[in-house]
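Hi Prof. W.,

I finally got the Pyrroloquinoline-quinone synthase prediction working! I wasn't sure whether to trim anything, so I left the full sequence exactly as given:
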Amino acid sequence: MNPAASAQEFEHRLRQIGADRYHDKHPFHDRLHGGHCTPDEVRAWVINRYYYQHSIPIKDAAFMSRVEDPDLRRIWRSRIEDHDGTDTNEGGIKRWLRLAQAVGLDPDYVQSRQGIMPATKFAVDAYVRFVRDKTLLEAVAASLTELFAPAIHENRIKGLLQHYEFADDSSLSYFQNRLKEAPKDVAFGLQWVLDHADTAEKQDMAAAALEFKTDVLWAQLDALWNGYVEGRIPPGCWQPGDGLLLAKAS
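And this is what came out:
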């Protein structure tokens, strides 16, 4: 059997996956952050990304249902609270719906999850199943795309504020809050993976899990590009003009 890499070597391997495969390199993000998206392309992104936001706490609840260590459950619970909200924190889902309203979408329509692209559903549902069915190590490792998220959030905030009239502190509060929330999650998750991936086989499993998650994120953007940039919207998906606020539809 091959010996396990050192923690430092293994962390470098994980970070290299992000450098090579994270979805910040997808051309849709260049288009969005550079101000080149049409209003309907932005709306399609908001609608489909909502399905991912909606599913993250479901994914985390599935993970926690398999965790027998109360310390791990207690630490992981904050991820659900960050998205679903608490008495003192409105949560990421409500912040995303505020973004939806800012771009002219009816939040009730977005929350209904009508018109989601098939590829979005397949990719996100596959991630939920992965976390539910795979080992705890693989489930935690898949979450480590958060290592690479701060840079894309910073670029997104800057680009949207520069190029789009809807962008302000209220509509972009989801991304601003993730800059504060994600570091604590990823610090714990990374250390947990480094501690528990103590054989070469486990390190390979964790690396493959992170690659899988990058594929989940990339596939969603491929679908958006094909449907709303190239104009090949699948049957039954959101059509420009649907689900708009009356004040924005005229």
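The chain is about 70% helix and 0% strand. Does that look reasonable to you?

Thanks,
D.
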